[in-house]
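Minutes, project huddle
Topic: does the predicted pose make sense with guanosine-5'-triphosphate bound?
PN asked that the exact inputs be recorded in the minutes so nobody has to dig through chat later. Recorded below.
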Amino acid sequence: MASGGAGGGSKSYSFKVVLLGEGCVGKTSLVLRYCENKFNDKHITTLQASFLTKKLNIGGKRVNLAIWDTAGQERFHALGPIYYRDSNGAILVYDITDEDSFQKVKNWVKELRKMLGNEICLCIVGNKIDLDKERHVAIQEAEGYAESVGAKHYHTSAKLNKGIEELFLDLCKRMIETAQADERAKGNGSNQAGTARRGVQIVDDEPQNAAAAGGGCCSSG
Ligand SMILES: Nc1nc2c(ncn2[C@@H]2O[C@H](COP(=O)(O)OP(=O)(O)OP(=O)(O)O)[C@@H](O)[C@H]2O)c(=O)[nH]1
Ligand SMILES: [Mg+2]
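Predicted holo structure (tokens), as shared on screen:
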């Protein structure tokens, strides 16, 4: 396709997404399932963080996702800002069988809102719904909490590959909406470098290397 104008249809968006949450809740499993359709029954603790990419096409708009899967162990907590800084979206994961892990999500919400305000799309994810018999976090409580902090709530099973595509697709749509709103807010939109509050990278046509791009984010869900 020829390069579309700034108001044209052929754009590609680069978004950075970070996964946060207690150890063992299934962050790595969600990312591996989403990017490589793999699942491992064993828990291999993530050290510091790991990085995967995914390309999507949403209604003709190309999206390059840079996904940062962080370490849940408490000793890595202080590294959080390195990964959530400049993120367009954050996926805060808890294990539905583990109440403490839900508490930890609340702590992340507080930290992210304090550090980034509303400029990040928040997703709260109850993972391991295949273990519903052992559920220790009430659905209503979790959904109510998410709503109260302007986040969206999702249920997933990395094991059974449930809810994951929907989660990422929905998040991408929200991030696109936010980027577009930023563009409009910036006025004519003829300057692709200056589109977003915090520099969402919107590139006409040819995608560049999928380097992480910083950017502003959500005001709505
Ligand atoms: N039953 C079930 N087990 C899951 C699911 N997702 C992950 N697990 C298991 O939970 C354990 C932890 O998964 P990980 O993805 O390594 O967890 P993590 O959040 O990345 O952990 P850290 O890297 O230590 O922060 C592994 O044994 C997975 O197989 C799920 O949806 N259902
Ligand atoms: Mg991990």
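Observations noted during the meeting:
- The first strand starts at residue 11 and ends at 20.
- The pocket of magnesium ion (ligand 2) is lined by residues 27-28, 46, 69 (CB under 6 Å).
No decisions taken; revisit at the next huddle.
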